[in-house]
Amino acid sequence: MGERHIGVVERRARLALRHGLAAGAGAAGPEEVADRLVALHGSDPTTVFLGVGARLTDPAQAVSATERALYEDRTLVRMHGMRDTVFVFPAALTAVVHASTGLAVAARARAKLVRDMAAAGAPDAAWLKEVEESALAALARRGQATAAELAEDEPRLRERFAYAPGKSYEGVHTVSSRLLRLLGVEGKVVRGRPLGSWTSTQFRWALAPAHRELDVADAQRELLGRWLAVCGPATEADLKWWTGWRAAEVRRALEALGARPVSLDEGTGYVVAGDAEPVTAPERPWAALLPALDPTAMGWQQRDWYLAPGLRPALFDRSGNVGPTVWWNGRVVGGWAQRPDGEIVWRLLDAEGLGREAETAVAERAELLRRALGGTRVTPRFRTPLERELAA
């Protein structure tokens, strides 16, 4: 018996139900959203809050509930993860992420920092380690602190060194900016409460919560299994891209999982054991307005099954970051933005098969988002052509 084929319609049904976007599939709180999705992109702080709000049964609670989870209950943690990118994870998953992904990234990051400092004639690795230990001790005393506040306790954090002299991208780095980022990748510190509101990109730092040390292969198996259960089926290319691992590591984790191969339009995909049975589409059609960098829009490397290639120039920036997207029944059909007066505006770019029902549903989601934002103005950190045009 050959591999079962999972077509586009079923893949969209899985996405709708498992990502909490279909009518009636909403979550009760941000912890449930993060657990379903495995990770929320955190490079742009607003993505976390807007992504949670798009999946809550009560979107108006997104900001207060997510702030509580991040900064009071600490049930969610903002830290470096796959592809050396900042994400928000369920606290229970931090050890898995650190072992499966963070250790290898951290080793490369520390070696690079030592090389960069040596090339600039800056102090050596022993000096850097001494500064690191002093900064961590200061952070333990303060609880949370900005880089500037830590430099009051450890002035060597203010030291500067030239980076890539003679190159087109040369610049001057401070020890604090590079070291604190490195400590974040190493799982020693995490980003705490921002200096401003929930839209702020300036964060305080805090010591990372203690977590158990895991075997790398075991952690990779667990992380891949969690993601496949939410985003499967996925190709090996999808898995390699999402994790940032080597192909050999992806294959080892798939084998350890006992993942089942299935047939997709673009080739062979994989699902976790027991997940190859057909999934029925939601009873009612659904619409969603997802933020820039949302984990659903960015979840797969091969995206033609939910995003027509012709839409990409308008919806992505030059670095491959997706902007705010409008969804209808499992596919991206347009984009949205917020104007200076707070109005949510949107445009359909792929209206094939869409009628009045779709436009009405999108308009309703836009109004819900406007109400949830209230007087807050949101501008994506990575701006895309359509978002800029609509926001003007």
From TrEMBL:
Tell me which UniProt keywords the record has, alphabetically.
DNA-binding, Membrane, Transmembrane, Transmembrane helix
Q: Which domain of life is it from?
A: Bacteria
A Pfam cross-reference name: AlkZ-like
> Which GO terms of the molecular function aspect are on file?
DNA binding
List residues traversing the bilayer. Answer: 86-107
Query: Which PANTHER family does the entry mention?
Result: LMO0824 PROTEIN, WINGED HELIX DNA-BINDING DOMAIN-CONTAINING PROTEIN
Query: This protein is called what?
Result: Winged helix DNA-binding domain-containing protein
